[in-house]
Write a structure and sequence with these properties.
Length: 145
Amino acid sequence: MVGFLIATHGGFARGILDSIELIAGKQERIDTISILHETSIDVFGKELTDKIVELDDGDGVVVFCDLLLASPYNQATMSYRALQGKHEYRIMSGANLPMILEALSGRMQDLGLDAISRMAQNAGKEGIQEFFEEFAKVSNTDMIQ
């Protein structure tokens, strides 16, 4: 089973996991890690690496980070060098609820690491919508029919 790690600044990761559990119930092989004001970057990096190892049962791990090229993301890339060949994982930025829920759906379908990553990326992008733009599309479609 593909594991999931949500790595963010502050309490964002825990909030995402709380929301996931509210919507989809308690999940297996999913964990969070947060960098806080008092967190040493070296300690954070080691803990992130340890969590990837812990979550990987052989099917790989998706690491969902809040920001591209920020500390959680950068530490995940640095962990890749340390774990190369031992643990397969994907690093995704822009973590949001739709992408992780879609990843859970892919995991329930027993899809592999790459398929789950693609699904999550697409859902993350598609989950960002502005109400009035979408309403206008629907309204225009209704007028045509």
